[in-house]
Specification:
By secondary structure, the chain is mainly alpha-helical. It is 40% helix and 1% strand. The protein has helices at residues 15-53, 76-82, 100-110, 112-115, 134-139, 143-147, 155-158, 162-172, 183-196, 211-215, 293-307, 320-323, 325-332, 350-356, 363-373, 392-403, and strands at residues 97-99, 205-207.
């Protein structure tokens, strides 16, 4: 019997091809070895040169200098003035303390005109307190947020960290004089608001030492979540819109709006927004604007400035009310935040005050005393806080100006 070798799907290798492949691999290896040798010699030479050129000790890299004539380094004081945020872990919280009793005095003088005596007013802003219970303080969840049985969502219903309240009061309040409160005064006002929400007792003194304990009694401390796209980029977004990267529409389509009869239900919204920043309230005394977004923004800014008695930086003409030293004092002391020259805002217009007191021989003394002591009832339910911090001569200068119709 003869035997034979069979191939099952595998071709015999070509000896010439194998030899050629081996020669190519050897040549590549030689090239790599040469390249590595050259690189090693280069690094060695560089290190040798550096060792001779550089001193034995390592020195810090020189600071980067800004080009001449373009800006300067910020001073420590300037950095400190901006670095005022307080985090939920209370990093950045300054030392200090304030009692509920002191906070009530400050609140009545500086805050009640907008928020009401007990923080419950809904006339200017949403209420600060209300809608929370003892069970909410125990569980850290505000039940009325889920039951939807509270007509208005108050600040203490929504906010989950006491640091947010402290930080916001410090940087943004009072409305007419933000950042004018000392740290101790911020502690006191915060303590009073917490007491109104029955989170701390009436004899409580809030401080940097015990504020973390107060955090454990915030009604909505467990009601916030980070499991959404606002916190984690890869999560499900909060909206169903798709991102537009090119050929995007110039403006969105308005699908709903307030009916005409409700436009001025809350007064002139343009006058209720600060003129700082890009956001303007709609001038609800006028019909809706029909221009482009940029045009409307410019119109709203000019309307807000005019309503507050301030000249637009784009307007060439300066009115007498704006150039008057008394008007400058009124703006500096926050009077224009609540009073318009000719339009009623939170308080009466100066022209209305002049009309009411026209011809009264003791009008000046009455108004000076009223500004000093504050009060409510003459022009509605909204109280005016006492302005005892304004110099006597400045008060009389402004009163004389107001009685002349702010002209």
């Amino acid at each position: 019997m003869s035997t034979s070798t069979k191939s099952y799907g595998m071709a015999k290798p070509n000896r010439r091809a194998v030899l050629r492949h081996r020669l190519q691999a050897a040549a590549a290896a030689c090239l790599w070895a040469s390249a590595l040798a050259v690189a090693g010699l280069t690094v060695s030479a560089w290190m040798s040169t550096s060792a001779h050129a550089a001193p034995a000790t390592t020195s810090a890299a020189p600071a980067i200098k800004a080009p001449a004539g373009i800006g300067r380094d910020a001073t420590p004081a300037e950095l400190s003035a901006w670095d005022i945020d307080v985090r939920p872990d209370f990093k950045g919280l300054p030392k200090g303390q304030g009692s509920v009793a002191d906070g009530q005095k400050l609140f009545d003088a500086r805050c009640a005109s907008c928020h009401g005596t007990f923080g419950e007013s809904n006339e200017v802003f949403n209420p600060l307190v209300g809608g929370t219970t003892d069970d909410d303080i125990k569980t850290g969840h505000v039940a009325s947020l889920r039951a939807n049985n509270q007509p208005v969502r108050t600040t203490l219903m929504k906010v989950n960290t006491v640091s947010t309240i402290w930080d916001y009061i410090r940087r943004a309040m009072p409305w007419n004089a933000p950042r004018s409160l000392t740290p101790d005064e911020v502690y006191a006002v915060t303590a009073y608001i917490l007491n109104l929400g029955e989170i701390v007792p009436a004899d409580f003194v809030l401080s940097d030492k015990n504020i973390a304990d107060v955090q454990q009694r915030m009604p909505n401390r467990n009601g916030m979540t980070r499991a959404h796209g606002m916190w984690r980029v890869g999560d499900k977004p909060d909206t169903h819109n798709s991102a537009c990267m090119q050929d995007c529409p110039g403006a969105g389509i308005v699908t709903s709006a307030l009916p005409a009869y409700a436009r001025d239900a809350h007064g002139d919204l343009a006058a209720q927004n600060r003129v700082i920043g890009p956001v303007r309230g709609v001038d609800t005394k006028l019909p809706p604007l029909s221009g482009t977004a940029a045009q409307n923004a410019s119109v709203r800014k000019m309307a807000a400035l005019a309503t507050l008695g301030m000249a637009s930086p784009d307007a060439p003409a300066q009115t007498a009310a704006v150039t008057s030293p008394a008007a400058t004092l009124a703006d500096k002391n926050g009077c224009l935040a609540c009073h318009g020259v000719t339009d009623k805002k939170i308080g009466p217009a100066f022209s209305e005050v002049a009309t009411k007191y026209h011809g009264q021989s003791d009008a000046t003394e009455k108004l000076v005393a009223k500004i000093r002591a504050g009060g409510a009832g003459n022009w509605g339910s909204m109280p005016m806080p006492p302005q005892s911090q304004v110099a006597e001569t400045d008060v009389r200068t402004m009163v004389d100006w107001i009685l002349r119709g702010a002209q």
